[in-house]
Amino acid sequence: MTSSGHETKYLIGILAAFSAVGPVATQILLPALPSIQSGFAIDLGTTQLTLSLSLLAMALAQVACGSWSDRVGRRPTAIWGLVSYFAGSVICGLAPNIWILIVGRVIQGAGGAFGIVLSRAIIRDVYGPERSAAVISIVTMAFVVAPMLAPVIGGILTDYTHWRFVFVFTSCVGLLVLALVWWGLKETRQLEEHGDEGTARLRAIDLIRQPLFLSYALQCGFTMGIFFVFIASAPFVVVNILGHTATIYGIGFVIISIGYVIGNLISARISERIGTDAMMLAGTFLAFLSAVLFGGLLIAGYWTLWAIFLPGAMIALSAGLSLPSAQTSAINVAPEAAGVASGITGFLQLAFGAITAQLVGILTTTTPYPMVAGALIMAVLAFLSVLFSRRYSFSQVNRRE
Questions:
Q1: pLDDT band for position 258 (cuts 50, 70, 90)
Q2: pLDDT tens-digit map of 24-49
Q3: What span, in angstroms and rounded, lies between the C-alpha atoms of 123 and 156?
Q4: What is the mean pLDDT of residues 93-98?
Q5: In angstroms, rounded to a whole number, what is the distance separating the alpha carbons of residues 217 and 281?
Q6: Half-sphere exposure of 186 (CA within 13 A, CB side)
Q7: Cα 127 from Cα 141, distance rounded (Å)
Q8: Which alpha helices (DSSP H) does 30-73 contain, by range?
Q9: Numbers of helices and strands, H then E, in the chain
């Protein structure tokens, strides 16, 4: 499929906005978590369920969304996802107790997952395997601006109005993006070339059994796990342990997002030239070094904002370097089932994010050390996944020769 320059820019803009709604919903809530905890008079572990169960819903929805979009098309799948996102946002804003809020977050998270999966699948449909990594980097770089501002907006809304206005904001975002998709997104999937629901399920099973695909997908999961260890723990460390406001956390999070933007800029410029394997290796090794620096600073007694946000920015930069290449490599293992491949990859990313966020969030009560330990473990596993994928690829090449 080919597009004019104007149509290409318009499509990238729609995909950036669509893929941003899920991350916006996740990150805009972070500064409000301490206020939700005190407002409902609940413990930290229960409060953390508003994040972890939302991430789990996003993870599960990505698998269903990928398979569904391969069968019925990208556009109708996108519309249903955005309707769910809007409905969940409304439920959250009106929630009379923490359990209704959690239900709304699950519905909102499931809808937000659709943009993450479909943007990658649509890019693969339109641009093919050669340009996908570069375009994914551009889309990621573009939509990361919104999540970068989301914690600032969430902090201001929490400090100066009420945490419920966070969901008024996400409701408006959902309606706006729904309008963009309804009028601006054409179908990109050639449905007549693909099989039925059973075939889609079979593809998913076959993909999971492929070591190369699984190593790429696991690398995405571990890399996202590092990131979610940080974002799940940092609000409580900054607000409850260091004694700063939610707005200060939101402003500090901008530094994290700038790191991610820089990583994606670098990836967009050089990934086609040096290859996806090199990008993944560089990104995961930098993540490991960043986690080590993070731990070293805190162990040395530097419990300051800079000691938290500077290593966090380096971790985000490393994710910007490695994730687009890992996502593209996973999808290119089975381009005929791009939706399913994208869904499984996204599931692993958010499943690891949900699990690590809940565990580390519960443990982070009086010290930031659980955050450091979680980030280091995830960084080591991500680096090992890259080494396995490189070794497996080389062995496959040698067998063919």
A1: confident
A2: 888 888 888 888 988 898 887 788 88
A3: 35
A4: 94
A5: 14
A6: 11
A7: 17
A8: 33-40, 44-72
A9: 14, 0
Between 345 and 339, residue with greater pLDDT: 345
- Is residue 17 within 8 A of residue 85, CB to CB? The reply is no
Is residue 123 within 8 Å of residue 327, measured between CB atoms?
A: no
Q: How far apart are CA 90 and CA 172, in angstroms?
A: 10
Q: Are 93 and 168 in contact (CB under 8 A)?
A: yes
Q: Whole-angstrom Cα distance, residue 271 to residue 136?
A: 11
> What gap in Å lies between CA 58 and CA 56, rounded to an integer?
5
Distance CA 188, CA 199 (A): 20
Nearest to 324 by CA among 218, 210, 213, 220: 220
Is the CA virtual torsion 221, 223, 226, 227 positive or negative? negative
Distances (CA, A) of 393 to 207, 216, 271, 329: 16, 11, 18, 12
Q: What b/e string do you get for 277-297 counting C-beta neighbours within 10 Å, with b at 16 or more?
A: bebbbbbbbbbbebbeebbeb
Q: Interhelix angle for 338-363 vs 98-143, to 10°? A: 120
Number of residues that this document lists for the chain:
401
* Residue 116 · residue 82 · CB < 8 Å: no
Helix axes 246-274, 276-299, angle to 10 degrees: 150
Closest Cα partner for 124 from 361, 336, 283, 376? 336
